[in-house]
Design goal:
Helicase, Ruva Protein, domain 3, Rossmann fold, eight-stranded mixed β-sheet, about 300 residues, alpha/beta, binds S-adenosylmethionine, two-stranded antiparallel ribbon
């Protein structure tokens, strides 16, 4: 992270005395004052509803001993609520034009830091050490840019950051896939990946009328409580995720057919025997397997030597 990119704002900590940013009137005023124009390519849809902001912040279970990492503060509607609820707030914003606005809005909040950067390029481990060394726990709280929701969440999870909760507004269908249980059409490799690291909970569905400008999709707030250790024990995590991907490769195909493409046609018989040996019927589909069954399957495939690791 470049220090030039970081704005640590000086002033006093506490309940913000500034007018509420997340209202239609104030948002329009700020946009007009700074001549700001929305960039669709950056997923800029700003929240203008106090109840939704309350729901998001309440789900994050913050207090003055805790830190909040916000990705994409925009003009600061959520940041302002986080500044009231947490002891330390760090917000990462990619759009240079928003930095002076945020600097003005949070001029009196010493516990709010704004970093101008692309979250996908940032060294988050280093950022955590620099920003959150003196808090008792950190949660990510954000209204995420929808064009990069999955890469951002997978980066947060795969880097094993010391997070308590991730409370994010995302596209409704993506939230439903993350929280889906085995057996339904929404359950897939994203559900397995998220549930491997977290316990998901849908907080609320959100209509598109609470944003300026309104997105073309419905939204939802999801809370991911990060597990202390993954949901299942696997000897080779990368291999586990390869098996999961392969099992969902073509959703209408049976597990045996999808996995034959993974192990090679010559091993079809051995694969069937392996599945039966771990009590998984080869004609089942990937979408019916629990995380425990995927773990068993990846362990059995790993020790069978049928696939090159
Ligand atoms: N938090 C604000 C709110 O709720 O009103 C704005 C949310 S808006 C949906 C998403 C924000 O993420 C925008 O401000 C956008 O510029 C920012 N953004 C987009 N891509 C980003 C990235 N890769 N890294 C950091 N911020 C990003």
């Amino acid at each position: 992270m470049n220090n030039e990119n970081q704005t640590v704002l000086s002033g006093t900590q506490g309940k913000s005395a500034a007018p509420e940013v997340g209202t239609p009137k104030r948002t329009k005023e700020i946009i007009a004052k700074y001549g700001f124009s929305f960039k669709k390519s950056l997923g800029q849809n700003f929240l203008i509803d106090g109840n939704i902001l309350n729901n998001i912040v309440a789900a994050a279970e913050l207090d003055e001993t805790k830190g909040a990492l916000e990705i994409g503060p925009g003009i600061g509607a959520l940041t302002q609520r986080l500044a009231d609820a947490a002891g330390k707030v760090t917000a990462i914003e990619i759009d240079r034009r928003l930095i002076p606005i945020l600097r003005d809005v949070f001029a009196d909040e010493s516990h709010v830091s704004v970093i101008h950067d692309d979250v996908l390029k940032l060294d988050l481990k280093k950022l955590f050490e620099e920003q959150f060394s003196d808090v008792s726990g950190v949660s990510v709280v954000a209204n995420l840019p929808y064009y990069v929701t999955t890469p951002i969440l997978m980066k947060l999870l795969e880097e094993r950051l010391p997070l308590q909760h991730i409370v994010v507004m995302i596209q409704k269908e993506v939230a439903q896939r993350m929280a889906a249980k085995p057996g339904g059409k929404e359950y897939g490799s994203l559900s397995v990946a998220v549930q491997y690291y977290c316990v998901p909970q849908l907080v609320c569905m959100v209509p598109n009328t609470v944003f300026i400008p309104q997105p073309n999709v419905d939204s939802a707030v999801i809370k991911l409580s990060v597990r202390e250790k993954p949901a299942v024990d696997v000897p080779d995590e990368a291999f586990f995720f390869r098996v999961v991907q392969a099992s969902f490769a073509q959703r209408r195909k049976t597990l045996a057919n999808n996995l034959t493409a993974f192990v090679g046609k010559d091993h079809r018989e051995a694969l069937n025997a392996l599945l039966i040996g771990i009590n998984i019927d080869p004609i089942r589909r990937g979408e019916t397997l629990s995380l425990e069954e995927f773990a068993e399957l990846s362990k059995a495939l790993l020790s069978s030597g049928l696939v090159k690791v």
